[in-house]
Amino acid sequence: MWDNLQILGVAPIFNVQLILNGVTVAAVFCLVAYGLALVWGVTSVKNLSQGDLVMMGGYGAWELARHGVHPILALIPVSAIMFAFGWIIYKLIIRRVIQLDLFTSLLATFGLAITIQQSLNLAFGPDVRTVESGFGQIKLFGGMIEITQIKVIAFGLCVLLAIAMVLFLKKSRMGQAIRATAQDPRAARVLGVDTDLVYAMTFSINAAICGAAGVLIAMIWVIQPFYGIAYSVRAFVIVTAAGLGNLPGVIVTALGLGVLEQYSGFVIGAQFQQATIVGLLLAILIWRQMTLLRQRKSLQ
Amino acid sequence: MSLRLGLTPRTLAGHLLLLAAGIAAPFLFPGHTIQFAVFWVFVLFALTWDIMGGQMGYNSLGNILFFGLGMYVCAVAQIAIVYDVAQYTAANGAIRVDFSRNEYFQGLALGVVLSALIPVVVAAVLSWILFGLRGPYYAIGTLGVAIAAAELTNSWNYVGGGMGIAMPVFPGGPGMRERFFYAACMVATVLCYLFLRWLYRTRFSLAINAIRDDEDKAEALGLHTARYKMVAWCVSAFFLGIAGALFGNMTGFIEPMETAFPTLTFGIFMVAMTLLGGKGTLWGPVIGSTLFYALREVTWTYLLGWQYIALGVLIIVNVVYFQQGIVGWLRQRRPQWFAAPIEASKDETLGADGKA
Fold first, then answer.
1. Candidates 3.80.10, 3.40.50, 2.40.50, 1.10.3470; CATH matching A2-293
2. Fewer CB within 10 Å, N or C, chain A?
3. Distance, in angstroms, between B333 CA and closest chain A CA?
4. H or E element: which one contains B336?
5. Is B162 on the interface with A (CB under 8 A)?
């Protein structure tokens, strides 16, 4: 552990490598966390199946790649399929738990998470997979640092998707309806917004975002049926730390978390990565709780 | 005694009948003793989950933490009184120390006591951290703790890491081991049931129900909510720790992911069984776990890999379409069967179930 720390001190260039790796992967988590925050804010459903929707997207890309579709092109069909899937899930499950208490929605989506991950396990097997995108490496600082081209491309795609999302929410009619519903569903209904449609759209858009994120994850990292829950927890860490409806906060936290994770993986060891995230989640929850306690409020 | 437990002659007869059936089961079906023992553990799972999830409205997804903790504490205690733990675990079961009868039972007794007490201490400490969280934050926080515990144990070599620990061999004849642990599991669960039956008739249950209905109001009315929440979780941890110790010895081999901290199987079964039976009632968890376990034993092997999908679907259907559970449903359809609560239910209709 101390040896690895010393390496970072002796060769500062490794820091750049870790930060680059962290930022590119974190950009994808940014998308996932943003989708979670969107659904959370609009429907108040806390979606524990977020990470499993990502895995579905990843396996969609993997399946299409086997049939010769390049993973970047797979973004469009996978997002479309996931949008439809999100719609079905909304009609079957989410619509019925919105009105109920919060734990019900959490447990229902947890059941969904189990169903998805086990179905993926049955369909694709428990192997860890990655989708080859066929891009090379970029060498920086005279070969001291290597980064795959696909990571840079994925980062760019993430930024594009995020900008498209923000524009959609700001400019389009539907986006305005979604924001209005998030602020006050009752007032929105009085003013003629079909809130049921808004909820359905929100959840489906989130599923599509997750699908796209899954395609990117499959290219720059690994997918495995049971990794979904870890991704969900990560998205929760980001959203909880940043606070709802705080897009800049989500971006900063996601990037910070990605970099921190790379450091902890390098310094402490990769087997503690999950525990680090959870420890961080607890630390954030406690810290937020302490700040709220001063005003006699609680996190709920 | 029977007054304190609220047993009328009729219900007492019913309880004794069930107890007799429990005692007779391993003699009637000697081939399935272990399955019956696991059944008792499942009932205990549901009962302990309901203290928090049903009666207090704090839905923990990580109660399995105490089960695994109890299992490991007991294993370490049992080994430590005769042998060096690090050496024993490093050998991966190659060293099989012959525990004499005395050593084994002394170790087990010590292990069970410690595996009840240490989880209680951990629950008390964790409650100080986690009970500031409410609703979904609490659920996710506890889930996180359980996952982290599994990972940390998995990479901690002193307790065998991912390779697990081969438990000391039970001294005694072939059929004795099963019967011994069956009896132990049954006693633990029956004691848990009786304790909860008594507990739910004291002021304590009024307090935790008040926390479920409206925590802020309960606090404003002078209830020391933090203390009640801590005690409730400690009760859960106490019985789960004992169950873990017994279960670990019964299976004979323990490892972190599948046996000790199975967040996605046992940890979720607890919730599913309680919801199926009807949460917030004493008999709901018992009925739910009986039905769930019977279904699981009958269908599990025939589902050929689909069993966890079925579990996920069961949870969704249960939560979305059948929220009140079996006992809750009966209470709506046949209120006369629950004669005592009818008068109380006049006051309870407004908000007792958190809705209205």
1. 1.10.3470
2. N
3. 21
4. none
5. no
